[in-house]
Write a structure and sequence with these properties.
Elements: E1 5-9, H1 16-26, E2 29-34, E3 55-56, E4 59-60, E5 63-64, H2 77-93, E6 97-102, H3 105-112, H4 120-130, H5 135-145, H6 158-173, E7 184-190, H7 193-209, H8 212-221, H9 226-232, H10 234-244, H11 249-276, E8 282-285, H12 289-300
Parallel strand pairs: 1-6, 1-7, 2-5, 2-6, 7-8
Antiparallel strand pairs: 3-4
Helix pairs in contact: 2-3, 5-6, 7-11, 8-10, 9-10, 10-11
């Protein structure tokens, strides 16, 4: 098979970014991030951007789809696909290899399975995500998409507002006209569950010590609401509850730590689902550079 993309996937805290950057450096590639929260500006520690991982042998590996939208804006699967293909073509134009790297299963799946973005299944995922937001946030979102809204009844009921947003978003993003057939050589990183748990807990302690709470306080000062912090989930949700006085520090840490562990399990569930649907994932034990390099040399470079 002839490949035109390399995908590096795996659950949180397994070393995807550092491995991908090293591989991109060796194979003359650039990275496209598949992370639903790293797209937001000013959300660095909480989303684990770890920009130092992109420095390999003193060279910065170019990356895409990070810091592309303000935290007050909305990002969705349509926009991810639109920006993915823009980045993909930009990388190809330089005769470089695009590396899709991340842990957001829905984003990765949408590219590797070439989602039809008008299908009902996506509407349900998007509806549920929007339903977590306060109705006033939803009204602002709808009016930003459709400033000339004629039917004011769309603003009265939350269900109507959400459905109107879904319709407006389709109009905005249905025109993804630069899609190509993707054949990805996909490498998955797996690590023993207890090792992942230990890494998650230690990383959380480090991020809290290195300013994650202060980062979220700054978001609040900049006008981000507690409802929006809930929408971002995990670190933002639980630290938001701590800052609001709903949890003390120890409760926040324990609940957040447990939620990140559960998130890692859900990520693996996504990847197993992808395999059941016929996507081949070449699993490696840990972020093993030599094994990953061998897979790419044997399969991608020889194709």
């Amino acid at each position: 098979m002839s490949y035109n993309l390399i995908t590096i996937l795996g659950p949180t805290a397994v070393g995807k970014t550092r491995l991908a950057a090293s591989l991109a450096n060796h194979f003359n590639g650039e990275i496209i991030s598949a992370d639903s929260r790293q797209v937001y500006k000013g959300m660095d520690i909480g989303t684990g951007k770890d920009l130092a991982d992109y420095i390999v042998d003193g060279q910065e590996i170019p990356y895409h789809l990070m810091d592309v939208i303000e935290p007050g804006g909305e990002f969705n699967l349509f926009l991810f696909n639109k920006l993915f293909y823009e980045s993909y073509h930009k990388i190809n134009s330089k005769d470089k290899i695009p590396f899709l790297v991340g842990g957001t299963g829905l984003f990765i799946h949408s590219i590797l399975s070439e989602y039809n973005l008008n299908k009902v299944e996506f509407d349900l995922v998007r509806y549920n995500a929007l339903n977590t937001l306060d109705i006033n946030v939803l009204r602002e979102r709808l009016l930003s998409l459709n400033p000339k809204l004629h039917n004011s009844t769309d603003l009265l009921l939350k269900d109507r507002v959400i459905k109107a947003i879904l319709i407006a978003e389709k109009k905005d993003f249905s025109g993804i006209g630069n899609r190509v057939k993707i054949n990805s050589l996909t490498i998955g990183i797996r690590v023993e569950r207890e090792t992942v748990r230990s890494r998650i807990t230690e990383r959380l302690r480090q991020r809290l010590e290195n300013g994650m709470i202060e980062e979220i306080q700054q978001l609040l000062k900049n006008g981000i609401t507690f409802d929006k912090l809930n929408f971002f989930g995990l670190e933002y949700k639980f630290i938001g509850k701590y800052l609001k006085g709903e949890l003390d520090y120890e409760e926040m840490f324990q609940k957040l730590n447990s939620s990140i562990h559960n998130f890692a399990k859900r990520q693996m569930t996504w990847f197993r689902k992808m395999e059941r649907e016929g996507i081949e994932i070449n699993w490696i034990d840990g972020a093993d550079y030599l094994t990953a390099e061998k897979i790419i040399s044997n399969k991608y470079s020889a194709s």
